[in-house]
Amino acid sequence: MQLAPGLHRIGNDIVACYLVVTDDGITLIDAGLPGQWKDLQAELASLGRPLSDIRGIVLTHGDSDHIGFAERLRAELGIPVFVGEADAARARGEESTSPAWGHLRIGATLAFIAYAVRKGGRTRHLTEVIPVHDGEVLALPGSPEVIALPGHSPGSIGVLVRSVDAVFVGDGLTTRHVLTGGVGPAPAPFTDDPAGALDSLDRLAAVDVRWVLPGHGTPWDGGTAEAVRRVHAAAG
């Protein structure tokens, strides 16, 4: 789905990843669930672009619902995969976490689980990743800039792409809580360090872009400062 010129979303409000499309190639932000591979193919077909136009994959963090088909692209097409250094082991499947689920509503939780099952399959962890660091500008289409956002996970990052007026935040925040169904900018569930995640978001408030694009929820086009304000308000 096109959000704006050069900016596309794959998936839906339950699990999403994104494409930054340029004449020089495509950057993929996150890789969703394994079963969203067909959604990726369909979106590229609608653009008349082959998989080989993807020049790199930038993961906002190493959780299984964000690395979905990344290893397939890396193994089959040699596409490099970038991830925050502190999440590299998680992306390779060498470590895991079990944060508290917190409050949930049965309907919303079942919808999340059902979608994950339908689009799931066995997640292939990465065998090779390229660690990235705060402030780094990657030599990929759109010149994505890394913003460290530790909290949801130690190596969580935001990905700033000024050419499409967007920052991709992964689970730094959510606009659709997958466990409660709540909508609007709010803290994401399954977060390792909730207080740290809120502190990290304050760095985004000064990043003046229109789009704030989470891994779960409706794309937010009301600017970064307002998104961050609403997350803090929701956190109480």
Automatic annotation (TrEMBL):
CDD domains per record: yflN-like_MBL-fold
Pfam families documented for this protein: Lactamase_B
Key words, A-Z: Hydrolase
Domain (Metallo-beta-lactamase): residue spans on this chain: 14-216
Gene3D superfamilies: Ribonuclease Z/Hydroxyacylglutathione hydrolase-like (3.60.15.10)
Lineage top rank: taxon: Bacteria
Gene Ontology terms, MF aspect: hydrolase activity
InterPro entries noted in UniProt: Metallo-B-lactamas, NDM-1-like, RibonucZ/Hydroxyglut_hydro
Descriptive protein name: MBL fold metallo-hydrolase
Organism: Orlajensenia flava
